[in-house]
Specification:
This protein is of the alpha/beta class and about 290 residues long. The protein is built from 12 helices and 10 strands. Helix 11 links the parallel strand 8 and strand 9. The longest helix has 17 residues, at about 50-65. It is globular.
Length: about 290
């Protein structure tokens, strides 16, 4: 499998461990990825300010991948949602597609709808498959309880993103459980992590985060597990801020799914960047046992 890897702005700015664990897991599973230097922002920050600019930014990335005959793999829910939304709009609205292609023409680019944006969870679950991944595991977890957090943009709007059932998703849970960990049920599993409100209404943002932490803890989770940079920043960096300045009594470390899977694939914890997480997760290795 060869695919264009669409790295998120957020991972480059503050989540080096997401980039290193992505590289390590893809290499371990034999997925050839191409870094397209011309890729730019997915447009997500522009969506509520200049919708056309949002579509153009996203369409440009789709066109760059299409020019190379590659599908796009993204590690960010917001990037995934943006690319899928733009894909949907351009397929449904020929006038908009013509307008966007007229703008892209200046770079010698054109979008015809031949490239498909995919989230890495889709690649793992749908393309590689759970049984094939199991065959590559060197270790599995025993007694580890995980609260999976899907994040908003990978599930909604469901008719556009088409990742999983928005009301009862299972794909991430199945991927977590192939590692031997138990995916525990918890009340606010599908609610927002609070990330979009940081910098706008910090108190409300932290209220949402704290509510989820309390519910995940009540569900018996040892760790949260996420698949989006924004969610990870909220549950890691912002949670640490909450513990320091808000006197929060609930603490629950968050691990990236690619870090979780990487440990089971036998990848070195340093390469997975476990020590870079703000809330320590090195204790998770005590749950590992040889296959």
């Amino acid at each position: 499998m060869k695919i264009a890897l669409f790295r998120c702005c957020m991972t480059a700015m503050g989540l080096d461990q997401y980039e290193s664990s992505t590289n390590a897991v893809l290499e371990k599973l034999g997925i050839e990825f191409v870094d397209v230097r011309e890729f730019g922002c997915c447009g997500y920050p522009l969506r509520n300010f200049n919708f056309r600019a949002f579509v153009l930014a996203s369409a440009r990335n789709l066109a760059l991948a299409e020019k190379r005959g590659l599908n796009i793999l993204t590690v960010c829910n917001c990037c995934y949602g943006s690319l899928k939304h733009t894909e949907h709009l351009l397929k449904e609205d020929s006038a908009l597609r013509g307008e966007i292609n007229a703008s892209l023409d200046g770079e010698g680019l054109r979008y015809e709808g031949r490239t498909v944006p995919k989230h890495f969870l889709q690649i793992l679950h749908d393309d590689i498959g759970i049984e094939n991944i199991k065959g590559n595991l060197k270790k599995t977890f025993r007694g580890l309880k995980i609260a999976t957090h899907y994040g908003c943009h990978i599930l909604r709007p469901s008719e556009i993103v088409q990742f999983d059932n928005a009301f009862s998703p299972v794909k991430m849970d199945q991927l977590v459980e192939l590692t031997g960990a138990e995916s525990v049920p918890w009340l606010t599993k599908l609610e927002c992590c609070g990330s979009p409100l940081i910098g706008v209404n910090d108190d409300l943002s932290m209220d949402l985060t704290e509510k989820k932490l309390v519910n995940a803890k009540k569900g018996g989770a040892d760790y949260l597990c996420v698949a989006c940079p924004y969610c990870q920043m909220q549950f890691d960096k912002v949670q640490k801020m909450m513990l320091a300045h808000r006197g929060s009594e609930v603490s629950l470390p968050s691990i990236l799914f690619l870090q979780l899977l990487g440990l089971c694939l036998g990848i070195d914890s340093h390469r997975l960047g476990l020590e870079m997480n703000r809330l320590p997760i090195t204790g998770i290795q005590q749950f590992l046992s040889e296959q």
